[in-house]
Amino acid sequence: MWDYTDKVREHFLNPKNVGEVENPDGIGEVGSIACGDALKLTFRLGKDKKIAEARFKTFGCASAIASSSVLTEMIIGKTLEEVEKISNDDIAMALGGLPKEKIHCSVMGQEALEKAIAYYKGEPEKILEGEIICHCFNVTDVDIRRAVQEKGLTSLEDVTGYLKAGGGCGNCHEEILQIIQKSQGMTILEPKKPAAGMTNLQKIRKIEETLESEIKPALIRDGGNIELVDVDGNRVLVRLQGACATCSRSRITLKDHVEARLRTLVAHDLVVEEA
Ligand code: FES
Description:
The chain is an alpha+beta fold. The protein contains 11 helices and 8 strands. It has helices at 6-13, 62-75, 80-83, 88-94, 103-121, 141-151, 156-163, 173-183, 200-221, 243-246, 250-265; strands at residues 26-32, 37-45, 51-59, 132-134, 139-140, 224-232, 235-242, 271-274. The protein has a 3-stranded antiparallel beta sheet. The longest helix is centred in the C-terminal third of the chain and has 22 residues, at 200-221. The model has no long low-confidence stretch (mean pLDDT 86). The structure holds FE2/S2 (inorganic) cluster (FES). FE2/S2 (inorganic) cluster (FES) binds next to loops. Belongs to the NifU family. Its cofactor is [2Fe-2S] cluster. InterPro entries: BFD-like_2Fe2S-bd_dom, BFD-like_2Fe2S-bd_dom_sf, FSCA_dom_sf, N_fixation_NifU, NIF_FeS_clus_asmbl_NifU, NIF_FeS_clus_asmbl_NifU_C, NIF_FeS_clus_asmbl_NifU_N. Residues 132-181 form the BFD-like [2Fe-2S]-binding domain.
């Protein structure tokens, strides 16, 4: 269960300024319904050039609704120069904070605002910088690198929480992990090909070693642990222990952390399952 503040709950249960402004001056649309998160922000300026009306429509979770709702409240009555300075951190702070897995909702709000202002100014659509790494959410290597460096993200889970990158099909997980490792100055370990030439015993040993050195320390730090139960072909059967066993996010830990690391460091076709 996410830990939501009262402010998030209030804006989710009683969202403000839902809908679309008629004849808007600014329109900003981000995300896509196919990806599960979309936001349309519209605003109208008054004669004093301050935002007189702002409305939103969103398809997303409680945090997306709350972020959009609070954003409209933040911008009404302000000039464009003032609202241009609003960052995603400001949106999250206005809600008393968001779970780190939901920060991308405030990022989406800030991006919609940026697009709506660009629309008003008649500026062309911003060209994506870099190469798209996550095709499900249109996130580039430049976006990921910037977020990792500026926000101190250290795991795939952090990146998904912040940018949503990696939150869909999962095909980009290895590339995201490599960007994180590179940004942290770690040696990049290329994903291993199927364990050609590795005997079954060597593969099991390699899995054990990787669990010990690369995976267990982080889980133990969070009050959990993991035990290798069996290896059956490419299936790696494990048992989560301690806090990890009872955590509602255990499946995410298993797939985004354990499986992704084993695929990168041992063999790319491993599938991790709970025994
Ligand atoms: S490409 Fe599908 S989650 Fe990134």
